[in-house]
Amino acid sequence: MTMLTTTSSSSSVPQDNAVSFTATRRFYDDANFPKGFRRCGDFTQKEAELLEAHGVAMQALAAGSLLPRTSDEQRFVEVIKGLQAATSPLEKLWIKYTTLALGRPFYAVVGTNLVRPSEADAYLDVLDSDIADEDEEPKAEEKA
């Protein structure tokens, strides 16, 4: 009796014999890190190296354009979705990268008034008119 077995090469079941987080090109984010990961000052040399080597695969997994092939990649996707806490260096690194890519928060000094760029011109016009009025007042007093 012969047993017939079938295998599917495009299965979404993780295959642990595959290498995790493989990419054919290096990962760069010139929009958020124009000097590169190594020179921006936010990542260690090891983190920058890992991000450049595996960032393309991590980005594709996070976006859902690549299906997980290994249990490590499946866990990475669950961490990105918030189902599990980050424990591996790549999981922690991707969370750090995405947090920094969103931008740093701006903290103002207490008591300062922040002026929006759209309001800046009107604000400067008011200041200019106030300064011009102060310059004219002493001249008027001199004539009197």
TrEMBL record:
Pfam families listed in its UniProt record: DUF413
Family: Belongs to the MaoP family.
Protein's UniProt name: Macrodomain Ori protein
Highest taxon of the lineage: Bacteria
Record InterPro entries: DUF413
